[in-house]
Structure formats: C-alpha cells, structure tokens
Amino acid sequence: MAVVEIVSFGYLHDAPPAAHLTIDLRDHFRDPHVSPELRDMTADDEPVRAAVLGTPGVAALVLATASAVEALASGPSAGVITVADGCAGGRHRAPVFARALAELLSDAGHGVMVRHRDLDKPVVRR
C-alpha cells in the first residue's frame, strides 16, 4: 500500500501546491459560498459537508480520484503520492473532498495524511 498526502487549498489564496494529481473543483460543482447561510461556515460544519457531498458528481469524482491513486500506487516507485484538490477559497468543497478521499483510501489500506492549507483563512469576499 502507498502513503498518500492530500492537500486541500483555495486558488484565491495562493498557487496550487505541487502534486502528482491536482483536482480543480471550482467550475463543475456549486460553491457553498453562494449560499449566505453556508458562506461563513467551513468543512467542519455538517451543513457544508452535506451540501458538498450531496452535489451530483462529487462522489463519482472521489471514486475516480481514488482509482487514479491506486493506479499510481501500483507502479514501481515507492514514493509518497500527493493529491491536491482546490476550490475558490479552500474552506468548503476542497476540504470536504479531501476528507472523503482520505476516508476511502484509508479504508483501502493506504497510509493517508491530510492537510488543509486554507481552511482557517478568512472568507474571501467576492
């Protein structure tokens, strides 16, 4: 089994971190930021998790990303596999996605480390 590092981030804060796989969640999945009741919450709050995980396509992308990690892990290299996933501000979609991916990979026997680069940064006012 592989060691996998998952980094969630917000594109509006800084450049994406270096990674073997980078998943951009901005254009294809509704941003909880547009809902005033969710805007100041984070992935630590159940309403945000439910909104993100209930978005059509998110679960399928988590599964597809896990499959890509499995493919990388089956190769001859024994290094850490890094997955970066980003949304606009790094407080909603990206950390929820990262945690769902981490759970799936951990259940499959991989060693998983998760870091949320921008989760605790202030809400980006747009």
TrEMBL record:
Q: Which residues cross the membrane?
A: none
Give the organism, scientific name.
Answer: Streptomyces naganishii JCM 4654
Write down what this protein is called.
RapZ C-terminal domain-containing protein
GO MF annotation, one: ATP binding
Annotated RapZ C-terminal domain residues: 4-119
What domain of life does the native source organism fall in? Bacteria
